[in-house]
Design brief:
This protein is an alpha+beta fold. It folds into 5 domains: about 80 residues, no CATH class; about 35 residues; about 190 residues, no CATH class; about 55 residues, no CATH class; about 210 residues, no CATH class. It is about 30% helix and about 20% strand. The strands form 9 sheets. Strands 3-2-1-5-4 form a 5-stranded antiparallel β-sheet. A 5-stranded antiparallel β-sheet has the order 15-16-17-18-19, sandwiched between helices. It has a 3-stranded antiparallel β-sheet with strand order 8-11-12, with no helix packed on it. β24 and β25 form a beta hairpin. About 40% of the residues are buried.
Length: about 675
């Protein structure tokens, strides 16, 4: 067992049947879990055949710079088989096993136990505050790496290395317990919010701790003139002065949410501190209520009956099945509000029209049959909707996004381009000006829903294409480079000692190059990097709940594809999953609704660009629209110079599609922090 190193690895056992191998991982079916799981080859120390089953001897390993803890990821169950139990016990406890025949004879040799030490002493140490902090992946944090190495620890009087090791174990356990408690509390709080929502799209908005920001939308603001205060330096008298323009208009005003008034803030929460004389608040109810009325009209035409009961502010559904459902809420204390329309059931009426439109307008060089098949296959696992955002903060006009939600994991993709949904006449924006609400046209809004659905189906077709583009482990790392270059994930912090600089590889400019070998060395300390760690975990273990690639046969076949990479990214953006490898607990900083929509929009456009570039390249190669996506995927694998992803931008701001083989690995782009270490010469 050449991989066996019991001193450096934690072990477990899996009994099952190997079904397939892909991307240096074994697909294993086992009675210990439902269905199948992927096990990295690096984690398989050895295998023993036992009848029709295989005993997989597993140990912890570092896979693509991610520490895989086999005991946490793979259940241990011998199903009452005594022979297997003996094998498991030997491997887990001692790291030695013998091959098994039909009637095995095993000889166990136990060394005399060393003197055991038992201590009732209570240990007190500083809490690892960094383990509980929220990390903002939009801004890399180059602090010290998490974790304490024994070699760096100065032993106190009468303290042994075993004492320090025990402290580390307790620290890790405590961190894991805190992380689990925080996760449970977060999910319990969000569940209450999500249970009161009608659509899965809105429930996804509440994930990632965003539920903490949700509030009522059906309120009206109050606007107050702001004044300048002066204090006489001699008398101390205070005077207040109104500020006017040359025309006599109030120069500066502020908008408040009066429903959040407190003793310290009797006017309520200030939403906008410096609006000019021309800015007129477009109240959330004035935007959303006409949309709700239009939606109800569509539903009533489909047989729905609504009733406004006494004391209720809003009519409730009495009978019928709604084609369109909606949720509305505010965030940022009312500064912005959103209404989500779930159009999934409504969209089935327009699927054929969308397929025809996508082909007629040359959006994608797919055959008509493949476009239709793609929509049928993808719509079954997705919810389609439109999200509309109104703002009181003076930073934006009304906004509209198409939204696509993958139901198996709750990952959200948002895409702009549906502003026309809200427009009147030939206007391009609805600004916060007097009389703007009167511009809303309900009939036009209803007619534009079909165009919004067309935009959402562009995303579905793109996702279907991405299922057929295979990605090797090295290529996945390069895709992470692309994500980072577009501000979607941040680089982890790498700290090295100044004394170790000469041991690191350097590029032609003398800059340190971070490689996997460097990261595995003791000379580099890797810290933070929540998104990077979580995405790698989702790539190695596709069954993670924020990725969920094992729910359908179509998804299982898509493991190791660009579609799989897309779920890793959108899962991290949407869910903000907790990452714990036993050494660190990274929770990631909460993405607000605005950040969520912006990042989702950018990610959706990136993946659509990848899909279109792939289809166009293969169509050019064959001279006809693409009908065989499997053949396209194989051709891209054989011709990596034709597999292009958006990596950089020109000076003009245009996207540049770069061949995957020309993009550096993610680690090679990291910029380490040099730490000066005082050397004690004795």
């Amino acid at each position: 067992m050449n991989k066996n190193n019991p001193q450096e690895a934690t072990r477990t056992v899996v009994i099952g049947v190997a079904q397939d191998e892909k991307n240096n991982m074994q697909l294993v079916a086992s009675p210990a879990w439902e269905g199948v799981k992927y096990i990295p080859n690096d984690c398989i120390a050895d295998t023993i055949e036992h009848g029709e089953q295989t005993v997989f001897l597993l140990q912890d390993a570092n896979v693509n710079s991610v520490n895989i803890r086999v005991a946490d990821n793979y259940n241990y169950d011998t199903n009452g088989d005594a022979v297997l139990q003996d094998i498991a016990d030997m491997w887990i406890e001692f790291g030695e096993t013998n091959a098994v025949d039909e009637e095995p004879e095993m000889e166990f040799v136990f060394n005399d136990a060393s003197e055991e030490t038992s201590s009732e002493e209570e240990f007190t140490f500083n809490e690892p505050t960094t383990q509980e902090a929220d990390y903002d992946d939009s801004t890399p944090n180059f602090g010290d790496a998490l974790g304490v190495e024994l070699a760096d620890h100065v032993l106190a009087e009468n303290e042994t290395a075993d004492d320090v090791a025990l402290k580390q174990v307790k620290t890790k356990l405590t961190a894991a317990q805190r992380a689990n408690k925080a996760r449970q509390e977060r999910y319990a709080e969000s569940k209450v919010i999500k249970d009161n929502m009608k659509s899965d799209i809105s429930r996804a908005m509440a994930d990632g701790k965003r539920h903490e920001d949700f509030g009522a939308w059906n309120f009206r603001t109050k606007t107050y003139d702001m004044v300048a205060r002066t204090v006489d330096p001699i008398t101390g008298n205070t005077e207040y002065h109104e500020v006017h323009s040359e025309k006599g208009d109030t120069r500066v005003r502020a908008i408040f949410n009066p429903t959040l008034a407190t003793q310290d803030n009797p006017l309520g929460h200030c939403l906008n501190r410096a609006i000019g004389p021309n800015f007129v608040p477009v109240e959330h109810p004035d935007v959303f209520i006409p949309i709700i009325q239009t939606v109800r009209g569509i539903n009533e035409a489909n047989g729905c009956v609504y009733e406004l009961k006494e004391g209720d502010k809003e009519a409730t559904l009495v009978s019928g099945q709604e084609l369109i459902t909606y949720d509305a809420f505010s965030f940022n204390k009312g500064a912005r509000a959103m209404i989500n329309l779930d159009l999934t059931d409504y969209s089935t009426k327009t699927r054929n029209e969308s397929a025809k439109s996508l082909g007629n307008f040359g959006y994608v060089n797919l055959s008509a049959n493949r476009i239709s098949d793609a929509l049928v296959e993808e719509e079954g696992g997705h919810r389609i909707g439109v999200s509309i955002i109104n703002a009181h903060d003076g930073k934006s006009a009304l906004q509209a996004f198409m939204t696509v939600l993958r139901t198996y994991c709750g990952n959200l993709a948002a895409r702009g381009g549906v502003q026309a949904l809200l427009m009147a006449g030939d206007k391009t924006k609805i600004r916060h000006m007097e009389g703007v609400v009167s511009q809303f046209d309900g009939e036009r809004f209803a007619s534009q829903l079909g165009q919004a659905l067309l935009e959402s189906r562009k995303n579905l077709v793109a996702m279907h294409i991405l299922r057929h583009i295979p990605v090797e482990a090295n290529a996945f790392d390069k895709i992470l480079t692309s994500f980072s270059s577009h501000g979607l994930i941040a680089q982890p912090s790498i700290t090295i000692s100044a004394a170790d600089i000469d041991t690191f590889p350097k590029d032609k400019n003398g800059n340190i190059v971070i490689t996997k070998a460097v990261m595995d060395s003791d000379a580099a300390k890797v810290g933070h990097g929540h998104a990077w760690n979580a995405m790698n975990k989702g790539w190695i273990d596709p069954d993670q709940d924020f990725v969920a690639m094992g729910k359908t046969e179509l998804d299982k076949q898509s493991v190791g594809s660009v579609f799989h990479a897309a779920q890793c990214l959108t899962g991290v953006i949407t869910h903000n999953p907790i990452f714990d490898d036993g050494k660190r607990t990274l929770t990631g900083q909460k993405h607000g609704i605005e950040t969520l929509m912006k990042k989702s929009d950018k990610a959706a456009n990136m993946f659509e660009d990848i899909a279109m570039a792939a289809v166009n390249a293969y169509s050019k190669h064959t001279g006809k629209p693409v009908d065989d996506l499997e053949a396209m995927g194989q051709w891209l694998a054989d011709n990596p110079d034709q597999f292009k992803i958006p990596y950089s931008k020109t000076k003009a701001g245009k996207k540049v599609m770069t061949p995957i083989n020309e993009i550096p690995t993610f680690q090679e782009t990291w910029k380490p922090t040099i730490k000066l270490v005082k050397v004690d010469n004795k």
